[in-house]
Amino acid sequence: MKKRLGRLETQFFAYIQMRKLRVLKPGDIASALELSPDQERNLFSRLAMAGMIARVQRGLYLVPERLPLGGKWSPDQTLVIKTLMDAYKGGYQVCGPNAFNRYGFDEQVPVRIYAYNNCLSGERNVGAVSLSLIKVDEKRLGDTEEFKTAEGLTIVYSSRIRTLVDAVYDWSRFNSLPRAYGWIKNELNSGRIDAKNLINLTLRYGDTGTIRRIALLLDMEGTEESLLKRLQRQLKPTTSLIPWIPLRPKRGRINRRWGVTLNE
Q1: What's the pLDDT tens digit per position in 114-138?
Q2: Range of the domain at 126
Q3: Is 154 inside any structural domain?
């Protein structure tokens, strides 16, 4: 980390603060500071290496509104995901462990931010922010809620019910079964969600395994038969069984209607 700012770095931070810039690309400051493209690129690189600005990707940087004491800076999670998705003109929604925590299903605060999106896949670090980017088909994006941060930025999350469906659908990625069954039961019993809307989103965003597991849960919770039949109509007859809890031995009572082994 740089302990003292040189003349050029001082000019850089004075300029971006005066212009209220938060995102920088090649060419944004070269003319104002009388820099060649190579000099501008080297300045960005030095400041990023020093932790004074954050590199989002090649040719795209985030800068602080004001340099903090000590000089080290890392951007807010919301600013990172918004800047990255804006750069690709992509859609996204924060999901998984972050959504579990936001809606009060899980008290654990994730160290990463998980996001379904339609343009990028893989792990990425921007400053101190760690991202798990999960590329999905455009049709799997949707049913979201927007929240305002203290800084006035808007971040998009999967909705409460969509988060529960994904906890069953994407259980292997999020390590969310069997916990998700308890979350769904609590949400139904408290009236925060209803079976009809849960079924709608299960049919829209779930796969066969998701439908079978959620149908069995709703059946055990006494959901009315007309709603259960909506789920049943989407399932093809089969003799194969799936486990209620995927990572446990496949031994237990068998529910033939939904083709699930209750290996509790």
Answers
A1: 999 999 999 999 999 999 999 999 9
A2: 76-158
A3: yes
